[in-house]
Amino acid sequence: MNVNVTPPAIEADRLTKRYGDSVAVDGISFSVPVGSVTGLLGGNGAGKTTTIGMILSLVVPSSGRVSVLGFDMARDAYRVLHRMNFESPYVDLPHRLSVRQNLSVFGRLYGVKNLAERIARLAADLDLKDFIDRQSGKLSAGQKTRVALAKALINEPEILILDEPTASLDPDTADWIRGHLERYRTNKNATILLASHNMAEVERLCDRVIMMKRGKIVDDDAPTRLLARYGRQNLEEVFLDVARGRGKASTEIAK
Amino acid sequence: MISSSPSFSFSRVFAMVMRHWYLLRSSWPRLLELIYWPLVQMIMWGFLQSFMVKQTGVMANAAGTFLAAVLLWDILFRGQLGFSFSFLEEMWSRNLANLMISPLRPVEFVLSMITMSVIRLVIGVVPVTFLAMFFFGFNFWGLGIALGAFFANLLLTSWAIGLLCAGLVLRNGLGAEGLTWSIMFLFLPLTCVYYPVATLPVWLQPVSWALPPTAVFEGMRALVLEQTFRGDLMLWALVLNLFWISLAGWGFMRLMHASKRSGALMSVGE
After folding, report:
1. pLDDT tens digits for A124-164?
2. Which of A89, A197, A201, A250 has the smallest count of CB within 10 Å of its CB?
3. Lowest mean pLDDT: which of A9-13, B55-59, B163-167, B223-227?
4. Alpha carbon separation from A248 to A18, A195, A212, A222, A225 (Å, rounded)
């Protein structure tokens, strides 16, 4: 019987990363369905960034496996990298290149067809027109974030990985970015994996939240179900419960 | 949406070359820097050569090779810097992670750095060769076909060293940046730029002959002083270069993998 099974967007299987004696990610397994928005939460040192690094093939796992759209990222990353993209405030674009030049370079790297048209579309969607010919290093934090998002969307990725996409932005710009991500996900049926410390953002965008602590997954559920189980009003309180092992978190994690 | 990504793409190499070309043309200090040192070197050695040719004996004879030596040395040195500079720019601008998660293959990345090294060299050294003709009457291009062999061999060496430096910076971060600027100066005495290999102690001569530029500088002296093109030396340099560049390529890939194992790529530039 020929069964055509669509692979999950992202799948981690007993994924582990050790740096010497320290275990950054400790045998985690999860699966992210196509078209979902998943939040990756955890305090500093929880292993979120290392997990993202392994998904992006920037970090080689010590053991276990991570695959994207069915391709093993340790072996076959180049078969899928053109279908993904990434944005983080901790990674920059060349400062002396204009926004248009940067988008043009990355558009070519990703083999984007009708590149000028695509850049014009992104400039309109993300409101870049006023500064598209300005050097990227001379932009405000909000403008830089919009440009970084434009770079992450240049190839219309099926998988979009975001590491704190609204860090250091004013509430208005942050809200605007979230709105754009929601529209992108709906229009393209894109899968988004989002690491964030902004719980309101996670509550608004994510269908599901994976909570990490000391390299392990300590909870994994829809935000509404997490609130109900922990008996809390918002995710920030759940996050604090998990981070400090207090309240219902102590029994939930034990389970 | 893009449905496939070829395993090699000139368009991606071109994209990276454009990235560095945009940078270069946006900054006149960067352009000036390319020509500044080759010009200063040429002027200093040019005056020294002018002084020494007025003397008599062996020294006058040897002096005739100084300008050729300094211009060939600049091909080697600037070739390596041009290669390494393109790589360091990605580190300084914290852009490396963006490139590493893109479909850009390592071989395309390396080819773009090779192209930029040639572009930087042409901008920096070619005008200086004409100035050498104007100021000191030294026709560098008069080396003829041999110049092509010298040029190709020196560039191959410069890329091998550049590749190794890039790998070390990738693995160890910007702490290894100093090596990029200084490593070539180890080659200055060992490759016998300004004097024959026979000048070195006997035990050091095999080390010198294992470095491809040594054959090039010996070949240059044979050409200038004896008007003899030493094809055997150029062939020896080519064989050595193929060995060194293969080793450097292997080392670069190993160091890149090591940086992915250590998580160094996640913290590049921070």
Report:
1. 988 899 999 999 999 998 899 899 999 999 999 999 999 98
2. A250
3. B55-59
4. 30, 24, 16, 17, 13
Output the average pLDDT for chain B.
Answer: 89
Q: Which of B2, B10, B262 would you mutate first to test chain A, the one with the most A CBs within 10 A?
A: B2
Pairing of strands A10-19, A22-32: antiparallel
Q: What pLDDT was estimated at residue B269?
A: 45
pLDDT at B74 over 60: yes
Chain B hits for A156, Cβ within 8 Å: 1-2
CB atoms A106 and B98 under 8 Å: yes
ipTM of the complex: 0.90
Query: Looking at beta carbons, which residues of chain B come within 8 Å of A79?
Result: 5
Rounded-to-integer distance, Cα B235 and Cα B254, Å: 29
- A64 CA to chain B: closest CA distance, Å? 14
Contact across the interface for A50 and B103, Cβ inside 8 Å: no
Euclidean distance between CA atoms B224 and A140, whole angstroms: 58
Closest residue in B to A87 (Cα) is: B98
Q: Which of A137, A125, A139 is nearest to A177 (CA)?
A: A125
Q: Which of B42, B67, B81, B48 has the alpha carbon at shortest distance from B220?
A: B67
Nearest to residue B161, comparing CAs of B265, B258, B66, B240? B240
Residue A98, both tokens:
């204009």
> Does A75 contact B at CB distance below 8 Å?
no
Q: Which two tokens stand for residue B76?
A: 């080697």
